[in-house]
Amino acid sequence: MRVFVSGASGYVGGGISRHLAARGHIVLGGIRRPAKLPEGVKPCLTGDLADHAPDLTGIDAVVHAAGLAHTRTPPPGAWNRNNLLASENLAKAALAAGVKRFVLISSIGVLGRAVEGIASEATPSTPADDYARSKLAAEVRLRALLGERLCVLRPAAIIDPGCPGNTPLLLKLLRRHVPLPFASIHNARSFIALDDLARLVELVLLAKAPPPLVLAAHPEPISTPDLIRALAEGMGVAPNLFPFPPALLGLAARAVGREAMWQSLAGSFAVAPRAALALGWKPAESLAETLRATAWYYVTTTKTP
């Protein structure tokens, strides 16, 4: 297939582009400014997609992975500009070019920071912050524009060598042998490896009639203490976990304005990826193996603090 991937120089878009190119697809990598792209990916300089989108004539499918994330204090309007308006412009360009399939990389965060029970494609959306609200708004707008051409992928937290988010902070604390008061947390959280997400994207692109919504997550969730143990094993260090009342840790997190981080660390967010499994997708390795590889990559590529 001829596939346009936006955000091809980013963490998620780069991983998807690399996989598709390695599988023999013709990949046009959308980038805002000149940047290094994975081998086999042809660059397409788009500028700011919120201003205009490229001509997509001859493209079979679009994977929209660009967007704003992992930013605590963006300028006013930045969430909607980068995650809604840019998505809308790219969708209109796809329509104008007759593109048959459009995959929007959204976020599991549109369901909230924690969920009761097991999340599925039927779980109501309850976004808890401006980032998640902008991603949900993009889903709604693109559904109205593209109809059945659109498949929305909502990845769980992505765990893989070089991943962003809270995992690098945990790795830094483990490397410094900091005692971690998380042994009393009893939760279940879902993650997905970047390579597994890329393989799921390809399955959606090749499917005759993919579902309109797919949750992307490893079928087996993991608790925060077990996640820390797997990371520590990959680093070759002790996890240094000790028990402490989670309620008191939650109070302390709220007092310093880190409630969202605490919820992502201690809350439960287990996902049943039913639509993904129905497409024939399965993870390439266990979550523990991915976590150990992530930690080893950190050890071998990051200078000792």
Q: Which fold name corresponds to the CATH topology of one domain?
A: Rossmann fold
Strand segment tally: 11
Please give the order of strands in the largest beta sheet: 3-2-1-4-5-7-10
From the spread of the alpha carbons, the general shape counts as: globular
CATH superfamily of one domain: NAD(P)-binding Rossmann-like Domain
Taking pLDDT < 50 over at least 5 consecutive residues as the criterion, the unreliable ranges are none
Overall pLDDT, averaged? 94
Structure summarized in a few sentences:
Helix content is 40%, strand content 14%. The protein is of the alpha/beta class and 305 residues long.
Properties at a glance:
14% strand, seven-stranded parallel sheet, two-stranded parallel ribbon, globular, Rossmann fold, 305 residues, single chain, 11 strands, alpha/beta
Characterise this structure.
This protein is of the alpha/beta class and 305 residues long. The chain has a domain at 2-160 and 190-218 and 270-283: NAD(P)-binding Rossmann-like Domain (Rossmann fold, 3-Layer(aba) Sandwich). Helices cover 40% and strands 14% of the residues. The chain has helices spanning 11-22, 78-97, 130-146, 167-175, 194-206, 224-235, 246-255, 259-266, 274-278, 287-301; strands at residues 2-6, 26-31, 41-45, 61-64, 101-105, 118-119, 150-155, 157-158, 191-192, 213-216, 270-271. It has a seven-stranded parallel sheet with strand order 3-2-1-4-5-7-10, with helices on both faces. Strands 6-11 form a two-stranded parallel ribbon. Strand 4, helix 2 and strand 5 form a beta-alpha-beta unit. The longest helix is centred in the first third of the chain and has 20 residues, at 78-97. It is globular, with a radius of gyration of 19 Å. 45% of the residues are buried. The model has no long low-confidence stretch (mean pLDDT 94).
